[in-house]
Design a protein that fits this description.
Radius of gyration: 14 Å
Oligomer: single chain
Number of helices: 5
Distance between the termini: 34 Å
Shape: globular
Order of helices and strands: HEHEEHEHEEEHE
Helix content: 25-40%
Strand content: 15-25%
Largest sheet: 8 strands, mixed
């Protein structure tokens, strides 16, 4: 699994960005024994709180992809985000739309390693954790990082999304 093309692309993107985990060491993608399709499952597998999981959600924002990295402890308020961004509509993307814009499947979308950059919002609730975990390109892969690093490596915008 470590050799999966998506996992490799994410690790290369992390290395190229000089991404760091909560201890300051280089972020490394970890492949778990089983798929973790939900924040609860990921938190359980990693032995962390659900709030430390950065859910990667792709939305269709007036036809353009928008990646919202939100704390696993709550849900995205799509009406609020749409209003804040001046969008006419913000809706859950189809699996085809997600794969087209990220090259990755729903449940494994990483914050980076996409064919081209995707506009990204990073939930301010994630700032409350010393280390957070994000998806690594497939549903079994994750990597440790920090809120500041997520903002930096994604060129994301801090936002209240819940």
């Amino acid at each position: 699994m470590q050799s999966h093309a998506n996992v490799q692309a994410v690790q290369i993107a992390l290395d190229n960005a000089d991404a760091r985990d909560g201890s300051g060491a280089p972020s490394q993608v970890r492949v778990l024994p089983d798929a973790v399709h939900t924040a609860v499952a990921a938190a359980e597998a990693l032995g962390v709180t659900v709030g430390q999981i950065a859910n990667s959600l792709i939305f269709d924002a007036d036809g353009q992809p928008l990646l919202v990295l939100t704390s696993g402890a709550h849900r995205v308020d799509t009406a609020r985000v749409a209003a804040d961004l001046g969008l006419s509509a913000l809706k859950r993307a189809t699996p085809e739309f997600v794969r087209q814009h990220t090259g990755q499947p729903i449940g494994g979308v990483a914050p980076l390693g996409h064919p081209k950059p995707v506009r990204t919002l990073v939930d301010t609730a994630l700032a409350g954790y010393d280390e957070i975990w994000a998806a690594g390109g497939v549903p079994r892969a994750v990597f440790p990082t920090t809120y500041a690093e997520l903002l930096r490596i994604t060129a994301g915008t801090a936002a209240e999304v819940a």
